[in-house]
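YM 10:42: 878027c0-c7ae-4b9a-a16f-cbb918b51f7b sequence, as discussed on the call
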Amino acid sequence: MAQNTTQRIPLVSLWRPFVTNLALTLSLFKGSPPQESLFTFPVSPHLCSLSTTFQFYILIINMFSKAVIIAIVMGLGASAAPTSVTESTAGSLVGRDVPYQMFTGDGSHWPDMGAWTNFDTMWANSQAVMTTSCTQFGAANNSPAEIADIKYTISSTSAYSGIDPRFILAIVMQESGGCVRAPTTFGENSNPGIMQGHNGYHSCNRDGTIMNPCPAYMIAGMIRDGSTGTLGQPGGGDGLQQCLAQSGSPYTARGAYTAARIYNSGSHAWGTDLGEPSWGTSCYASDVANRLLGWAGPATPCTLSNPIH
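YM 10:58: structure's back
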């Protein structure tokens, strides 16, 4: 019988590199100084007695074990690293828990524009409500595509109308919670859509017919109706642009609060209490002011009584 001359590699030569590297890694996490570098290659006591071919095999195993250990260390480091929202862009979520403040009076001592949050933070804060607000109307909630269309249209409408995009967003959230399938309400006029525009034409929930998805052109129309008005169509009326002009101070925070009052009530006497309208929702202007500061609650804590008719 021919003698078997195949040289066997001792098991210790195979598993020692991995165990050694693992031990070194654990010593790093414990804070104890490692006895060997992760980037050196410890030699097995059996290695020198082996052929060059087998030495090469063991060297490959050693290198592979180090690569595995290093990958594990990097993964643990990445998962353990804290994430700070303050390191993000202007759209960070700072301000999500902004408390509500009750504002009364004529708006002269309400927060100025310098106190308003930025649009990206305001947008981020609104998402918890905007993604669920259609439930209250028995309709499908906004899809990501519909939400993207809302944001795009607010920005584009602001660009050509000159209306601050934060003010448009505040009214969108105040009127419907940002639901693209908000139903039409009726008072002296019909008020359809996401901004409940004055006799507006655009709606994704009209006469019991609900559109899902709500087309981008319809979302754009609803926001334009509320922002720049519907004066060019039968029975049309004012939008935010006209209300700002009527406020007497269209480029100031006080003008925006007054315009919000006009948008909700139809008119307002300059210098009178924004929380005591003859018609509409008494908390409306205070709510809008808080939205501009970053508040984004699903329901207002304001306790002003509405006018009785």
